[in-house]
């Protein structure tokens, strides 16, 4: 793997979303393997530049580490939704064979995010900034739906 | 395993739900292993009498066959919901380690069924009749929620 793609002093690391991502990644690290790792390096595997993508086969099964990154990403979004709307948001990532699946976040009886996953073994974002933009988009759509259907979200 | 617990001429086998259960089980049987099996024998493993339950250890990991039965059960309920309300119902069964998990059915952006699963390795019903009662209950609750929130179900 090449250089770290997120600068150690990138202000993006101070955003709510990235702080939560770090928390999620630390939570996954039951054996403390990444304990000494600075946050930019911890989040670096989420960045999949074109060069990095080229190194991954087009077809493949996602490994445990990739799966936990997918889980961490949607967990973090669920946490942000929860903070924003004050109601419990439950993420659910389901993968079938060959990296196809579905990621869902529910609040009450409302589906506030629903995505089809494919090529999960190549999960990643072109840059940290693209990752945050994606998360912000999912968050704002979710919060909007909750506002429109607060009765169902409150069930 | 002991005798078959569903009689070959049990009228319950003609109910919409049981007919759909048979269809689901046949669909799972990619290798045609159960091809010659009559419907009562095909559905027999869903019946977990007290005697049968006693033979299964309290703690255990669900095997592939048990998992496919769980999937078949919730698939069948989703199909019945779909027939009843005319909208697509999507089932999602997610299991973590040791047979814990969550089964969900969504219609549009509405969660119409949401169950916590535990002890999945002991998945089953005391009788065919109890199984159908359970399915009918899930169906009627789902249909009611859809009626109340048809806007969200239509999203």
Describe this structure in words.
- 2 copies of one chain form a homodimer.
- With 155 residues, chain A is α+β, with helices and mostly antiparallel strands.
- In chain A, 45% of the residues lie in helices and 14% in strands.
- Chain A has 6 helices and 3 strands.
- Chain A has helices spanning 16-28, 39-43, 50-54, 64-85, 128-148, 150-153, and strands at 89-95, 101-107, 110-117.
- Chain A has a 3-stranded antiparallel beta sheet.
- Chain A starts with 15 loop residues before the first helix and ends with a helix.
- The model of chain A has no long low-confidence stretch (mean pLDDT 93).
Quick one: how many beta strands of chain A? 3
Secondary-structure element series of chain A: HHHHEEEHH
Widest sheet, order of strands of chain A: 1-2-3
Query: How many separate helices of chain A?
Result: 6
Cα-to-Cα separation, first versus last residue of chain A:
46 Å
- Low-confidence residue ranges of chain A: none
Main sheet overview of chain A: 3 strands, antiparallel
Helicity range of chain A? 40-55%
Q: Greatest interface and its residue counts?
A: A-B, 16 and 16 residues
| Multimeric state | homodimer
What structural category characterises the helix and strand content of chain A? alpha+beta
- Which term fits the overall shape of chain A? globular
Specify Rg of chain A, calculated over alpha carbons.
Answer: 16 Å
What does the average pLDDT of chain A come to?
Answer: 93
Portion in strands of chain A: 5-15%
């Amino acid at each position: 793997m090449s250089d770290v793609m997120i600068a150690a002093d990138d202000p993006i690391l101070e955003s709510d979303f990235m702080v939560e991502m770090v928390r999620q990644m630390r939570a996954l690290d039951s054996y403390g393997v990444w304990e000494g790792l600075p946050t930019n390096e911890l989040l670096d595997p989420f960045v999949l530049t074109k060069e990095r993508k080229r190194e991954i086969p087009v077809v493949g099964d996602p490994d445990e580490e990739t799966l936990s990154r997918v889980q961490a990403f949607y967990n973090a979004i669920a946490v942000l939704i929860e903070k924003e709307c004050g109601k419990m948001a439950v993420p659910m990532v389901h993968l079938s064979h060959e990296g196809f699946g579905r990621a869902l976040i529910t609040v009450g009886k409302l589906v506030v995010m629903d995505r089809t996953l494919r090529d999960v073994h190549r999960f990643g974002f072109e840059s940290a900034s693209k990752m945050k933009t994606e998360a912000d988009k999912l968050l704002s759509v979710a919060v909007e739906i909750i506002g429109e259907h607060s009765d169902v979200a409150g069930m």
